[in-house]
Design goal:
Helix content: 40-55%
Order of helices and strands: HEEEHEHEEEHHHHHHHHH
Strand content: 15-25%
Shape: elongated
Distance between the termini: 58 Å
Radius of gyration: 20 Å
Number of strands: 7
């Protein structure tokens, strides 16, 4: 009896990282990408860090219009969501990155990208933080009232015309027309490993749909033959994500407490003044 072939796990994060570069390809001369950027000397990782080469030049692509010099991206796969704790965790990452590199707040932004609308987080930001949620484009929302510019990208709501590739990793495709459009575009870029990474994932999630379209079978065979050997990091490493370095862990816990109490100025001072930071550690018993 033949054994059933074991399927490779879906690698959402490498595909999302490649997809961001595809979406922002028209701005590539002004952007530097860092995947799973480590904070400090031990693993505590930002999902994606995007740095503008020329801070004064605007980004015209809809998902990047909010960008300043340093842009922290937090991504959630389709079966995950952004919680209130995730929101503060990323804020803590931002302040830690700011502290390490002595960056002004005005040069930083935060982007949350997910496929599920974070109802509890949005309610919390409106009610507790008096924030306003403004829709800027299909699937793109800016959160007004924070000390660092924040945007929410709902991947499944993005425009098919403006954001075909990023939208397509938001879950199941809408139908064969969308699959066919992806195949046509992929054929023009299949030499590009970024497109191969994204398309490999899309095909595996929507295998039955692709198989229904006979004209796509040859492209499907080519795609599934790619083993994605260059993608050595598969998804999040939960054991490392929260960090192993005691000092970093203490700073994040302190950051979350101060942000919840609206003590941004204290957090700023703590990020720059080691003695003051130690005082706060004692005060909050961290």
């Amino acid at each position: 009896m033949k054994q059933k072939k074991q399927q490779r796990p879906l690698q959402w994060h490498p595909a999302f990282y490649a997809d961001l570069q595809i979406e922002l390809d028209s701005e590539k001369q002004n952007l530097i990408y860092e995947n799973e950027h480590q904070l400090g000397t031990k693993p505590l990782e930002i999902d994606v860090l995007i740095i503008k080469n020329k801070a004064e030049e605007p980004i015209f692509k809809n998902i990047g219009r909010i960008f300043q010099r340093y842009n922290i991206i937090e991504y959630k796969s389709p079966d995950d969501y952004v919680s209130i704790s995730d929101y503060y965790k990323v804020y803590a990452y931002v302040y830690l990155y700011k502290s390490e590199h002595n960056i002004p707040r005005r040069e930083m932004t935060i982007t949350f990208a997910c496929s599920r609308y974070p109802v509890k987080l949005m309610q919390y930001l409106r009610r507790e933080k008096a924030c306003e949620i403004c829709k800027m484009d299909d699937g793109i929302y800016h959160i007004i009232g924070t000390d660092i510019p924040v945007q929410l990208i709902l991947i499944h709501q993005l425009s098919r015309e403006k954001n075909l590739w990023l939208r397509s990793i938001g879950g199941k495709l809408s139908g064969w027309k969308e699959a066919e459009k992806l195949i046509r575009e992929y054929k023009e870029h299949k030499w590009d490993k970024r497109y191969r990474s994204v398309m490999d994932l899309i095909v595996r999630v929507n295998r039955e749909l692709f198989m229904e379209v006979k004209e796509m079978c040859q492209a499907l065979e080519e795609l599934m033959a790619d083993e994605m050997e260059a993608m050595k990091k598969s998804g999040w490493r939960e054991g490392e994500k929260y960090g192993r370095q005691k000092g970093m862990d203490r700073f994040i816990r302190l950051s979350i407490l101060l942000l919840k109490e609206n003590h941004q100025e204290q957090l700023l001072k703590a990020s720059e003044d080691e003695a003051y930071r130690e005082e706060l550690f004692k005060k909050y018993h961290i």
